[in-house]
Design goal:
This protein is about 35% helix and about 25% strand. By secondary structure, it is an alpha/beta fold.
Length: about 325
């Protein structure tokens, strides 16, 4: 993508909106076990909403297409995204399905386990995308994830292609995908687990990640595999790069991947080159780990610059 020669700058995020119910405990429960925990909080989340807010906090104009329920969780999401400056007029209120919920459990090391009850997210259709005509105006990049129906993701890719708009697909949560769906996006971003599942190869190191990326990459695609505290690898026509992550004190890894994706999208829409955009995204993902929650943890552009000046990262 050569956004620097394109006057379009808006990021269009198509995806999920959830209310996150977060509980902390010393450790995650085993099957059939009850663990007495500590702090609980409720926050806006969902991969789509997280990535939209992450891009907006990095300075992008952002619009979102999705579905919420006619309930208090939906109202909370609307308020949170509008506060962040995300265009919300194409997020539909489903008359029957509830707002999606994410049930997040966090241990003392900041590791999490998440169960998502999809609710209205699973009611998002290709017709919803096609009818959101103004959302597609002046779009530099479309961002997709896999918390809405695959048929809707496929429709979004096709509708973006009709408008000659590149797509960044965050192929998460991990699931089997048709090869045709993986061929079309200009960018594919996955973590180690998702890379393993899609490439059917172990990913235990940066070298493994590059091998998996080479197996998955088609044509001129940019493939990114995020590696948690080990950063990320980028594979493109320009070659391969391993971007190390800065050392941070981990509080909660929830939404670190979404911070990465949203920041990457904003950087690309602003015209940064591929490697610089990935480096910026790695720092944002690391910073998100230092705060509790999903949307509450997402850094701003000012946070990012302050951290980079302090650490020369």
């Amino acid at each position: 993508m050569t956004a620097s020669t394109d006057r379009r700058r808006k990021v269009l995020v198509i995806g999920s909106l959830n209310a996150d119910l977060v509980a902390q405990a010393a450790r995650l429960p085993l099957p059939g076990e009850t663990v007495i925990g500590g702090q609980f909080h409720l926050a806006a989340g969902g991969k789509g909403a997280n990535q939209a807010v992450a891009a907006a906090r990095m300075g992008s104009a952002v619009a979102m297409i999705g579905r919420i329920g006619n309930d208090s969780f939906g109202s909370m999401l609307r308020d949170e995204l509008q506060r962040a400056g995300v265009g919300f007029e194409h997020v539909l209120v489903d008359p029957t399905a509830p707002t999606g919920t994410g049930h997040v459990f966090i241990d003392a090391q900041g590791r999490n386990a998440i169960i998502v009850a999809s609710g209205a997210n699973q009611r998002l259709t290709a017709e919803d995308l096609a009818s959101a005509t103004s959302a597609w105006l002046d779009v530099a990049l479309v961002v997709l994830q896999l918390e809405v129906p695959l048929s809707t993701v496929d429709a979004a890719i096709r509708q973006a292609a009709e408008r000659d708009v590149p797509v960044l697909l965050n192929a998460a949560p991990a699931q089997a995908l048709p090869r045709d769906l993986l061929r079309a996006p200009a960018w594919i971003v996955v973590n180690e687990v998702e890379a393993e599942q899609l490439a059917h190869a172990p990913v235990r190191s940066a070298g493994d990640a590059l091998h998996a990326a080479s197996m998955l990459r088609t044509g001129t695609q940019r493939m990114v595999v995020t590696l948690g505290s080990s950063g990320a690898v980028l594979l493109s026509d320009q070659g391969s790069t391993h971007v190390a992550a800065p050392a941070v004190e981990v509080v909660d890894t929830t939404a670190a991947g979404d911070a990465f994706v949203g920041t990457l999208a904003a950087a690309l829409a602003a015209g940064l080159d591929d490697e610089s955009a990935v480096r910026r995204a790695v720092v944002a993902g690391s910073l998100a780990c230092t705060r509790l929650g999903a949307i509450p943890s997402l850094p701003t552009a000012a946070d990012l610059e302050q951290f980079r000046r302090r650490t020369a990262c």
